[in-house]
Amino acid sequence: MALAGIRVLVVEDDALIRLMIVDYLKDLDCVVVATASVLPDALQKASSLAFDVGLLDINLKGTLSYPVGEVLAARHIPFLFCTAYSAAALPAELSSTPVLMKPFNMHQLADQLQIAIGGVSP
User: Fold this and answer.
1) All domains of the chain in start order, with CATH
2) Which end of the chain is less congested by CB atoms within 10 angstroms, N or C?
3) How far is residue 39's CA from residue 110's CA, in Å, rounded to a whole number?
């Protein structure tokens, strides 16, 4: 799989899910650049850090992460939403963003990362 060395920002408010995602990414030989669990921290990291792809939970402790997606889109950094929300709920400007529905496994995450970074689709 062509994910080795891919640098990832993980935005997830649930600590157990965040740890699972980080473990999955490490097993896929990705590099977790940073994690964030609240919107202000996510916005700061999305605006300032160097990474290849972002994984965003939509609901961060009751606050939507759409502004983080907008920052990443403006920086031309691919990202996907990892959420239990329907893709139909996305705002129009983010409607083409890949959505990985929770719960998911490592293979599903790998497939969606490939799509997000423009690799070969599964």
Assistant:
1) 7-116 (3.40.50.2300)
2) C
3) 25
Query: What predicted TM-score, i.e. pTM, was given to this entire model?
Result: 0.93
**Which residues make beta-bridge pairs with 80?**
55
Q: Where are the beta strands (DSSP E) in the chain?
A: 7-11, 31-36, 53-56, 59-60, 63-64, 79-83, 99-101
Count of CB atoms situated within 10 Å of the CB of 32: 18
Q: Is the peptide bond before 40 cis (omega within 30 degrees of 0)?
A: no
Q: How far is CA 49 from CA 14, 62, 73, 93, in A?
A: 22, 24, 14, 23
Number of CB atoms found within 10 A of residue 24's CB: 20
pLDDT in tens, 68-111: 999 999 999 999 999 887 777 788 888 889 899 999 999 999 99
Cα(56)–Cα(11) distance, rounded to whole angstroms? 5
As a whole number of angstroms, the distance between CA 16 and CA 21 comes to 9
